[in-house]
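Re: weekly structure request thread

Next one in the queue (232 aa):
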Amino acid sequence: MATILNIETSTSVCSVALSAEGMILTHLENFDGRNHATLLSGYIKHCLDHLRAHDDMRLDAIAVSIGPGSYTGLRIGLSEAKGLAYALGVPLIGIDTLQLLATAAMFSPDTEITDSTLFAPMIDARRMEVYTAVYDLSLTPLMTPQPLILDSGSYSGFLDSQKLLFIGDGASKAQDVITSPNAIFMPGIKPLAVDMVALSERSYARNEFIDIAYSVPQYLKEFQATVPKKTL
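Done, posted below.
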């Protein structure tokens, strides 16, 4: 087990959690909007101050969500994590946001799971598009992470034979077009740093680290700039 600083900025939520031996020591999160640049450094300082108050503990690694998700949020989170990992001389762990959503659903008390339940995490993109994948209980990808434009036939190969749990802020869009009785929708689950711990502990135990200098977010598609409405 390790002491890990977990950083999550892939959506409108900004959250940071300090964990040790799989337990949450302290955490902060904000659900008010995309204000990561304002909040993140203070949240990290709070966690590191908590760590420094315990002389017998040291930071072993930093974990950060690497997408898919908000272009701006991912850049802010990864940049902060890279600089901190370099300065402290600790390894950097990259957490897939879709796997994080699936893990959060698995541990949610509101989730009824059987051995055959599949998980379809969904992050809202533009219009009827989402970033998504399909995982089984072992997080084996049965559909690789990808951008997907939703229609009534989406996921039909899975829904024809088994339950598929739709998770994340893109699930409400799916609910409008997917009517299979095997579809279960949980749009309220958000990617949070406190739910990263199982994945970051697993990566640390396996020595699965990302390059501090050259790693980039998993955008899944190229950035598309838009003109602000006030400019128009």
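The first helix runs from residue 36 to 52. Confidence is low (pLDDT under 50) at residues 225-229.
Next request, please.
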